[in-house]
User: What shape does this take?
Amino acid sequence: MATPAERQSDLDSLELGIATDKVCFIIVKARQFDVKEGNADPNSGSDAIDDGFTDVLEDNPDDPVYRELAGFINSLDIEEQLNLVALAWVGRGTYDKSEWSEARRIAREEHNSRTAQYLLGLPLLGDYLEEGLSQFGRGCADESDTL
Assistant: This one.
């Protein structure tokens, strides 16, 4: 039977299966997307200056941040997508770091072709991923040069 120190060592050696810089890119873009809101200016003027540039914060179906983020997530291989979903679940508190294998197993069972849509439907995706990374002793501060 493993000692608590050996079990902790096993947890510390868990691999995310997705590069930290990729997760950090998603965090940055998810936060840009999270600040979007519904139609803030229903009586939109003829140009951005007249509107005080408020339209840039609207959540539109053709939003370029959404498209970029969805495209990036969709371009990840299946294993990276599964790990990203599991990491979001760990960050959300659905699973603990010690349940990483279980989170990955459930992500695999529930996987479909709509991973990006699922993740972008999580209102605090950036926060969840950041917390998930911190559970693994990683963060984006060291990755800022790559963003």
